[in-house]
Each structure stands twice: as C-alpha cells, then as structure tokens.
C-alpha cells in the first residue's frame, strides 16, 4: 500500500486534470472541436497570475480570478477571429494545434524562458505526523472542489447551464426551442478557457512557470476525457480522478515506466469500452 | 625658379601619395585576419536559458582574447563568434551546423550543448570542420562515436566524468551522507550512465538511481522512493526545472535536511529561490565555474583575471550584476583548446594539422589543464585536469562548496 503522501499527491494531480478536462469537454460538447491549445491557456493563466502577484502586487485569489476572466476573453476573441472563419473540423483542429506554438513562442519572447515561481504564495506545510502537505496543495484541492460545485450549480440550476446541457445533448432540438447555439458557444469557449487558465493559476505556486508547462496537463486532460467518454462531464471528472491517482501510485511502484502503463491502460479502456467509461457519445 | 618650384611640389606630392599608400598597406597587413567560429547552443525551447544566459560573457571573453591578439604562423588573427540555435536536438544541431558551414563559412564549431552529437558530426565531418562538443551516451563504446568515421570531432567537455566528479565533490563536502539519490530524465538514459554507476560503485559511493519522464513536475513518487532507499542527498543531471521541483517538494514532504542540486551551473540563485522558496533552496548545489575561487585546481592567473574582467564587462553592459559564472566552462574552454592547437600547428587553414595538435595535446584553459586523448574516448582519457567544482546557494548568493578535480576513466 503506498504511503498517504502518494494518495494526497494523486488527489492534487487529479484536481488539475479535472479542471482542465472539464473545460475541454465542455468546449467539445458544444463546439464539437478539441481545443489542442487548451494547455496553453493553462500556461498563460500561470504567467498572468505570476505578473499580477509579483509585478502588480494583486493578492493571489484576485489574480486567479483576473487570469480566468482575461483568458475567457481571449478564448472568445480566438473563437470570433479565427475558429469561426475556418471551415471544417480538421482545419479547426490544425488551427488550434498551431496556436500551441504561437502561444509558446509569444510567451517565450515576452516572459522569457527561465523558470519562475510563486513559492512566496501560501508557503508552509501542514504537518500531519506521518506525512506533511503543503498549503499550496491543499489550496488546489479546495479550489477544485469549489469550482466543481459551482459548475454543478451553473449547469443544473441556471438557464445558461440548462441550455448548455440541452445543446450538448440535442443541438438541433435545442435551437428549435430558441436557444442560440452560436451565443452559447461563445460562453462555453470562455468558460473552457477560463477553467484551463485557473487550473494553471492555482498550480502556479505549486510548480514552476515557463512557456512550456501546458503540454503535460493538456495530454493528461485529453486522456481523462477519452477514458471518461468524449463529451461526458461526469466522465471527465472520473477519468481525471483515475488518471491522477494511477499516475502517482504507478510512479511510486515502477518509477518512470508509469506513463507507459498509463497509456496501455487508456488503450485497454478504449478496446474494452470504445466510447469510454461513461459512454457519452459526442455530438 | 618657378619651374623648379613646380617640379619640387610634384615630387613632394608623389612622395606623399606613395607614403600614404605605403602606410595604409602596412596597416592593412597588420589588421587581424578573422577566424569565424560557430557557437551552437539552445537559444529556444525549455533549454533556452542555458544557451542565452552565457552569450554576453562569451562575446566579452572573445573581445578580451582578440584584444590580447592571436598570433599564428607569424600572422595576427581575431575570432568572430557566431551564435546559432541548436534547439538542443539532433535535428536542430545538424541544421545549425549546415547554416554555420555553408552560409557563414565557419571552419570551426564549439559549444554544441546537446548530448546527441552524431547528427551534427555527420555534417561537420563531411565538410572537414573541427567540432568541439560535450560527450554523451554516444561517446562511449557501443555508441555511435568512431574516431575513424568522425576524425574532426573533439570532446571538450566530458559529461559523464564531470557528473562523477560532482558526486565525489559532494561526498567530500558531506562525508556523513547516507545515500545519494541520482536522477535524470529518460532522455539521458544510455550506456554513459552505466559507466557512471560502475565508477561510483567502484569508488564505494552509496547511491540510488531514478529516472523520470521528460517534463515531470511532480516528484512526490520519486522522492518517496528515495526516502525508502535511505537517501539524504538528491542530485540530478542538469534538468533545472526538475531540480528546483525536487528541492521544493522534498521540503514540503518534510525531508528538510536533504541536500539537493543539479550538475548544471546555477543560472541565477534568485530563480531557484523564486521557484523553490527561500528556505527550500538554501544549500542547493550546482556545478561551479568561478575559476578565481578554485582551491584544488590550479588555474593560470591570466585566465582567472580574464574571467573576472568578463563578469565586470557584462555587468557594465547589462547595467546590473552578472552573477552567472557557468559560462567559463563551455565556449571559453573549447575556444582556448582550439586557439592553442592552431598555435601549435602554426596554421588556421590545415584542419588535419590542427587535429594532430589536439590529439594527445595538453592545453591550458580557463578550467585548468586539459589533456586530450589520442583517438579513443573511454578506455583512454578524453580530458582530465579540470576542476569538478561545486557551489551552493547561501542566502541569495552562490558560494564555493567543494572540489574534486576530474580524473580519466580507466
């Protein structure tokens, strides 16, 4: 049995993947596209929060919200200026792939390539005797919990949320009921990008910040939604939980081979259950 | 009278013209001839800081070298260093080499950062360009290196021997250590590490080796494994981000007494403090190249003075203190080997004669005396005599920790 520290580490990993995967699957459900640059919104969120805290002296919680809002706006701009003008899912996919290199290149020029960090935010550890957990990791877990509850209420108790669910399930029927799919797609793109940015922001004090930090969370979020079932929000949450825990536990047992095992696991899931664990079909 | 005056004036003018022409011709003959040298290092991507940070120091060092004057075969030369991005990949290196050779017309390349040198060597050898780089897994027996196939490759920085020296320096600094946790990303995995492990075992050093996937930021599982293996020192092979994460996360996990570090040079103590936190980064170790502070390795005072001068020149240029000293080990050492080999060979044109001077030659460099092997790599010393020094972060500064001069592998 792995020590408690490994389980807590797994939970922290799961939280990051969960916020990332949730945003990604939301965009996929409504827009029908996989935003390959989702990880770069994570990176940009971390960079924004870094500057907000260190250069502008804005308290971390406000910086986090600000980064989310800014990236939501950027997501909408990208939707209007680029995605809407490109026809065909494949080409839209290529465009979002190109955005990875654009954002990484731009961040390298503006932010520089040196690693930076926000170790000054919430330093210290909670000593539990047999193991200790940093306040930064505790903040990640609490933040994710709050975001997931908030998203549950938004999707189930608000008009917009119900509209999102309706469009995700039956877009044609939803538009017959007067729901503007186009207007909704802007909202969803904004929420998706904001979630990625806030995941990056909350992780900024935990890990180091550089223009390339978005790659791994993006891949893991993608695996999580594939395991959970493309288009399934519940699947994204469960997939992220499985991946986060598995990653930590397997790495504890077999070190660097953990990723190989993870990918084999994903392939196995797809062979046994091609539609993912929760079987929600795409649009 | 008038006629004589005109004749005198014309004669004087002719003499003056010839005099001026003569002076300018002499001046032209004394103007240094340019030797173009390519410097390949990562200027983009995650390894970019390693390539970018030392560039102002390289340029300042070359400026001093040129000011001193390079005399080869009775002529005066000066070096023009051309920096290109090798992207820290084999493909990037090969493409950078092509650009340097076929566009910039360089005859010498120094400082390639990537351990993956064979792709570059294929380009440089075909063009008969001398290429001074670091060793890597491919340099050891069983690797791609072949002295016959790659006659113009020179290993100026031996990666694996250096790592061994680092570990020995750590042991001398912390003789009561329990076990050293060694790590590298799986990108570095290869036969070179077998030599490291074998050598450390032979030296009686207690260690535990871990590998992690490239880009890893979460080291909790690996640190737990180190803890179970009884490690109290964790030392990596140069991945700065990984080393900073290890320093931070071991602190958070409660292993506050553990010493951590990386075999790369410390780029800027404030970067490590910013990422790992002030307390967690105290004592963080890295390779140390401030040759003026070495205690065991003899450095020619001329080079120590030059390097200190470079620190001042760069600080004046950038308008703030330049704390990075790691630049000393790479390009300046390679350049010094190259220039001294040219001086010995008495030519800058005859590549074979220069290579003959390099092989088996001893060179006085900013990092100590280098003795180059014949044509072999391992099985015969590649280089030895340099510092193998370690520094560590104390407060917000990098200070000298210990030293274990490099020795050849048997």
What does this structure look like?
The complex is a heterodimer of chains A (283) and B (410). By secondary structure, chain A is mostly helical. Chain A has helices at 4-31, 38-54, 60-81, 89-111, 135-157, 159-169, 171-176, 181-203, 215-228, 233-254, 258-272, and strands spanning 125-127, 132-134. Chain A contains 11 helices and 2 strands, in the order H-H-H-H-E-E-H-H-H-H-H-H-H. A two-stranded antiparallel ribbon of chain A has the order 1-2. In chain A, strand 1 (125-127) and strand 2 (132-134) form a beta hairpin. Chain B has helices spanning 2-30, 48-52, 55-68, 90-103, 118-126, 159-173, 191-202, 220-228, 240-252, 269-276, 278-281, 301-318, 331-345, 351-358; strands at 33-41, 70-72, 75-85, 108-112, 130-134, 153-157, 180-185, 207-212, 233-236, 259-265, 285-287, 362-365, 368-371, 389-394, 397-403. In chain B, a hairpin with a 2-residue loop joins strand 14 (389-394) and strand 15. Chain B starts with a helix and ends in a 7-residue tail after the last strand. The chains are: A mainly alpha (283), B alpha/beta (410).
Quick structural summary:
In chain A, 72% of the residues lie in helices and 2% in strands. Chain A has 11 helices and 2 strands.
Q: How would you summarize the topology of this molecule?
A:
The complex is a heterodimer of chains A (283) and B (410).
Chain A lengths: L3 H28 L6 H17 L5 H22 L7 H23 L13 E3 L4 E3 H23 L1 H11 L1 H6 L4 H23 L11 H14 L4 H22 L3 H15 L11
Antiparallel strand pairs in A: 1-2
Chain B lengths: L1 H29 L2 E9 L6 H5 L2 H14 L1 E3 L2 E11 L4 H14 L4 E5 L5 H9 L3 E5 L18 E5 L1 H15 L6 E6 L5 H12 L4 E6 L7 H9 L4 E4 L3 H13 L6 E7 L3 H8 L1 H4 L3 E3 L13 H18 L12 H15 L5 H8 L3 E4 L2 E4 L17 E6 L2 E7 L7
Parallel strand pairs in B: 1-3, 1-4, 4-5, 5-6, 7-8, 7-9, 9-10, 10-11
Antiparallel strand pairs in B: 2-3, 11-14, 12-13, 14-15
């Amino acid at each position: 049995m792995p020590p408690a520290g490994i389980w807590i580490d797994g939970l922290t990993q799961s939280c990051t993947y969960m916020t990332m995967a949730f945003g990604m699957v939301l965009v996929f459900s409504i827009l029908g596209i996989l935003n390959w640059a989702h990880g770069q919104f994570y990176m940009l969120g971390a960079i924004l929060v870094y500057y907000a805290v260190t250069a502008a002296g804005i308290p971390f919680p406000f910086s986090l919200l600000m980064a989310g809002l800014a990236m939501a706006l950027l997501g909408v701009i990208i939707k209007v200026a680029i995605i809407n003008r490109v026809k065909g899912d494949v080409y839209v996919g290529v465009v979002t792939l190109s955005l990875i290199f654009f954002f990484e290149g731009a961040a390298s020029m503006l932010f520089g390539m040196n690693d930076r960090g926000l170790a000054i935010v919430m330093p210290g550890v909670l000593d539990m005797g047999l193991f200790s957990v940093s306040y930064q990791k505790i903040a990640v877990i609490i933040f994710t919990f709050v975001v997931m509850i908030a998203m549950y209420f938004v999707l189930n108790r608000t008009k917009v949320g119900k509209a999102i669910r309706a469009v995700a399930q039956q877009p044609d029927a939803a538009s017959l009921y007067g729901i503007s799919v186009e207007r909704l797609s802007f909202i969803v793109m904004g929420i998706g990008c904001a979630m990625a940015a806030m995941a990056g922001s909350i992780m900024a004090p935990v890990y180091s910040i550089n223009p390339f930090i978005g790659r791994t969370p993006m891949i893991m979020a993608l695996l999580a939604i594939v395991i959970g079932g493309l288009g399934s929000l519940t699947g994204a949450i469960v997939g992220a939980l499985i991946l986060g825990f598995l990653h930590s536990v397997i790495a504890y047992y077999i070190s660097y081979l953990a990723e190989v095992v993870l990918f084999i696991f994903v392939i196995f899931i797809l062979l046994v259950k091609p539609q993912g664990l929760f079987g929600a079909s795409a649009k | 009278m008038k006629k004589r005056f005109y004749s005198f004036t014309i004669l004087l003018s002719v003499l003056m013209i010839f005099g001026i022409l003569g002076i300018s011709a002499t001046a032209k003959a004394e103007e240094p001839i340019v030797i173009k040298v390519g410097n390949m290092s990562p200027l983009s991507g995650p390894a970019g800081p390693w390539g970018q940070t030392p560039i102002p120091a390289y340029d300042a060092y070359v400026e001093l070298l040129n000011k001193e004057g390079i005399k080869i075969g009775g002529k005066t030369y000066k070096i023009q260093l051309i920096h290109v991005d090798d992207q820290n990949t084999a493909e990037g290196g090969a493409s950078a080499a092509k650009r340097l050779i076929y566009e910039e017309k360089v005859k010498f390349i120094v400082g390639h950062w990537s351990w993956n040198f064979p792709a570059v060597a294929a380009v440089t050898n075909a063009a008969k360009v001398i290429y001074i780089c670091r060793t890597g897994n491919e340099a050891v027996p069983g690797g791609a290196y072949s002295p016959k196939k790659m006659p113009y490759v020179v290993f100026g920085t031996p990666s694996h021997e250096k790592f061994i020296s680092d570990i020995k320096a750590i042991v001398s600094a912390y003789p009561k250590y329990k076990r050293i946790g060694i790590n590298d990303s799986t990108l570095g995995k290869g036969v070179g590490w077998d030599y490291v492990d074998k050598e450390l075992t032979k030296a009686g050093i207690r260690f535990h080796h871990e590998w992690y996937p490239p880009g890893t930021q979460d080291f909790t599982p690996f640190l737990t494994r180190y803890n179970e293996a009884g490690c109290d020192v964790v030392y990596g092979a140069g991945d700065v981000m990984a080393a900073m994460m290890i320093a931070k996360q071991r602190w958070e996990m409660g292993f506050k007494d553990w010493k951590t570090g990386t075999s790369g040079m410390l780029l800027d103590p404030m970067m490590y403090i910013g990422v790992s936190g002030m307390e967690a980064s105290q004592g963080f170790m890295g390779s140390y190249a401030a040759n003026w502070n070495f205690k065991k390795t003899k450095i020619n005072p001329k080079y120590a003075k030059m390097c200190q001068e470079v620190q001042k020149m760069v600080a004046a240029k950038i308008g703030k203190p330049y704390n990075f000293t790691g630049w000393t080990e790479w390009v300046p050492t390679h350049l010094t080997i190259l220039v001294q080999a040219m001086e010995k060979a008495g030519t800058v044109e005859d590549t074979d004669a220069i290579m003959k001077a390099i092989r088996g030659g001893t060179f006085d460099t900013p990092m100590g005396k280098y003795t180059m092997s014949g044509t072999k790599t391992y099985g015969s010393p590649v280089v030895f005599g340099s510092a193998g020094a370690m520094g560590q972060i104390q407060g917000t500064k990098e200070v000298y920790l210990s030293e274990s001069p490099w020795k050849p592998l048997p």
